[in-house]
Amino acid sequence: MSEVAGEVVNVGREQVHVVRSGPLDGPPVLLDSGLGGAWFDWEPLTALLRDACRVTVFDRPGLGASPAGAAPPSLRRDVALAAALAERPAGRPARPVTVVAHSMAAFHAEALARVRPELVRALVLVDPSHEHDARARVRLSSVLSPACTAVGALLEATGAAGVVGPWGRRAVLRHTSRAGDPATDAAVRAVYGRGTVLGTTFAENFAYREMAADLVALRARRPFPPVPLVVLTALDDVRREACRRAWADGHARLAAMSPHGRQVKLPEARHMIHLDRPDAIADAVAEAHRKIPA
Question: Pick from 107, 28, 102, 119: which is nearest to 75 by CA?
Fold first, then answer.
């Protein structure tokens, strides 16, 4: 039995928009977007996975079709969200999940594997952010988050959000993907025309350095479990050779966290690999599942 369903669910104090598809008894896969991402960015991948896997895509609070967050973005909050979605699946027995995380969401995925290893079957990190020596001496994200919310509300009240948001998405995609936008113009306006989404994106950007620093501290306390790990590296939008080497080397260090880790370099793909090469991610999920002992 398969189904496709989108709904807003309560996860602790937060409400998140969740879309599930695929057979109820398929191996569970949880998809987590990068900075400011939305559920529809994963559609090219879910189309490849949903025949065999039980796929869950969610929008973090304030993003996509999720209501505004009760708490500001933080590593602790976002790991708790992912853990709750893995722990309390709808319509199937609870089983460890394969987490597929893009860009900044790799922080959440790695931290989840370290603090709740029993929930994680495998990790696929899609052109992940990597900060191996991050420090956050001054923590301002919780203070700036209300200001970001106010800016978003102002943009919506003036009607500017309906112009700035969709324009900003198109501008970002021109640099981060060779593929066309999987979302319709109406869907993009409905999401990126929301002041809440714009404000939350600003807030996540401010929280980035603090999340990275919290993950570095967590690495010193909690080991990475010996789960299958595939790290996909996009290189087409990294122009300078020295930057390409540094980006690839950082990903190689991530892959080395697990004895079952592997890096896959994609010279023809840009940062939005799930748009440019969803087949490579689907192959990585299949590879990770093959490596799991019976």
Answer: 107
